[in-house]
Amino acid sequence: MDDTMKDVHFVGIGGVRLSALAEMLVRGGSTVSGSDRASSVFTERLETIGVSIRIGHDADHIGKADTVVFTPAVEPDNPELVAARDRGIRIVEGKKLLGEMTHGKRLVAVSGTHGKTTTTAMISSICETAGLDPTAFVGGAVQGPESNLRVGDSDVWVVEADEYDRAFLELSPTVAVVTSLESDHLDLYDSESNLVETFDAFLSGLTEDGSAVISSDYPASRSLTVPAGRARVDVGFGEEAVLTAEEMVSEGLKTSFTVVEGGETVGDASLQVPGRHNVANALSAIGAARRMDIDWSHIARGLERFRGVRRRFEIVGSGNDITVVNDYAHHPTEIDVTIEAGRAITDGRIVAVFQPHLYSRTRDFLGEFQTALSRADVCWLTGIYPARETPIPGITGRSIADGIDGCHYEEELNALAGSVMNTLEPGDLVLVMGAGSIERTAVDIAKSLSGGAGEQESGGTTPTAPTVS
To answer: 38 and 57 in contact (C-beta within 8 Å)?
Structure first.
């Protein structure tokens, strides 16, 4: 163990990336503590393996740490960071620690505006099925193991590669996956061309024998440049795709399709999750697996075994012939595909319940949000989840609602579930969407429908949203 990593404190430990890094260090023998502004499913899990968690931030929380790890969602004047600087303690950003951990590994790094969490989990399932015993960092809790981390005993690592704070530039992948690429995080990237340049920089980090698996379904991703000498595999549904899916059939939550590569049939695949977007995710996973020389039988079985990720079209409960889905969708495209997936499994009404995430994203995609949510039969909006941002004058959740005919609005999240309940009818599919704290609304509606007991598969309470990047 590195002498500077014996006692490590995490500032913002409740986030997806830092919680997984913390667990890796615990499993490696480090003493780990952490703090966040609120509890989360990840902090609760960490406590069960011996991590000392503090809610709130205070200089005393860093204790005798020799290293302090932080997320960029934490303010620079955070008292724990200030105390660490004053005491000369080593301070490391989470993305750099992940880069150090993955150095020299056979690394599959999964990037993209949408779909990277699901695709990462799919690749992990395939590698596990193939006996590769991977270590996997996933941006959400995978259903079944109920964890965002799988610790393996080989040199194969599968990592979700986040573009938000340019974190993926710390990685040197053997296989780089780009599931999708379009404008987002315009608070950090001043244009789509700037975003494309950053993804090009990510691909430039490929190892000399590396490969890039890129969705050809987005103009921006088609324009990406792969370094000379590295292989490029285009996947998707358009004519540019070398690896594609045909004969897609949806039956309830299941989706089956035939995989074709270079005009030749590879084999049949089946998913236990709905939607064309999940077939697109599977194509990215298949492309990566084939670059790793994994046999088709293992690929097909790994996809069939995959049960999904929490907050990705997660059915949390039902009652009175009404079903409630909890989904992380927070971008107009993600709302679009979530509603499309809903249409594939029901003939009833689609009731969209959405909490916008970030004032800047609401401002930048106002019209696109209105168009996407208008495709639901009933629409509900609530106030914006600010995460790291301060309010922007004139931008609220009502800004979206006012552009949608008949849209309902409830500013207070605590009152949202009850208000939505008053508009539901038998046969409805309720899609509760957002990347903030709206998860509790999905659970509250499900509990009301089932008479108070609820049918939430993950069980337990629904804590406040953790630090989100």
So the answer is: no
The residue among 26, 75, 37 whose CA lies nearest residue 464 is 37
Q: 3-state DSSP helix/strand/coil percent for the chain, to nearest 5?
A: 35, 25, 40
The span from the first CA to the last CA of the chain, in angstroms, equals 29
SS (H, E, C) 185-225: CCCCCCCHHHHHHHHHHHHCCCCCCCEEEEECCCHHHHCCC
Identity at 426, one-letter amino acid code? P
| pLDDT number for residue 460 | 35
The predicted structure's pLDDT at residue 380:
98
Strand order in the sheet with 211-215: 147-150, 135-142, 156-160, 106-111, 175-178, 211-215, 231-235, 243-251, 254-261, 264-271
The answer to whether 261 is a known catalytic residue is no
Q: Angle at Cα 124 formed by Cα 119 and Cα 129, nearest 5°?
A: 125
Residues of the chain with pLDDT under 50: 1, 453-469
CB-based contact 184:148 (threshold 8 Å): no
- Burial label for 69, CB within 10 Å (0-12, 13-18, 19+), is buried
Question: pTM of this prediction?
Answer: 0.86
Known catalytic membership, residue 160:
yes
The pLDDT, as a whole number, for residue 186 is: 66
Token readout for 280 is 């697109």
CATH superfamily of 103-305: Mur-like, catalytic domain (3.40.1190.10)
State the architecture of 3-92 in CATH terms. 3-Layer(aba) Sandwich (3.40)
| Per-residue pLDDT at 2 | 62
Q: Which of 95, 105, 116, 447 is catalytic?
A: 116
CATH number of 314-449: 3.90.190.20
- Residue ranges covered by each domain of the chain: 3-92, 103-305, 314-449
Task: Indicate which residue of 117, 362, 382, 396 is catalytic.
Answer: 117
Residue type, 246: E
Lay out the sheet containing 31-36: strands in order across. Answer: 52-55, 31-36, 7-11, 67-70, 90-93
CA–CA distances in Å: residue 462 to residues 38, 44, 206, 380, 457: 11, 11, 39, 21, 12
Given a contact cutoff of 8 angstroms between Cβ atoms, the answer to whether 56 and 47 are in contact is no
Q: What is the pLDDT of residue 457?
A: 40
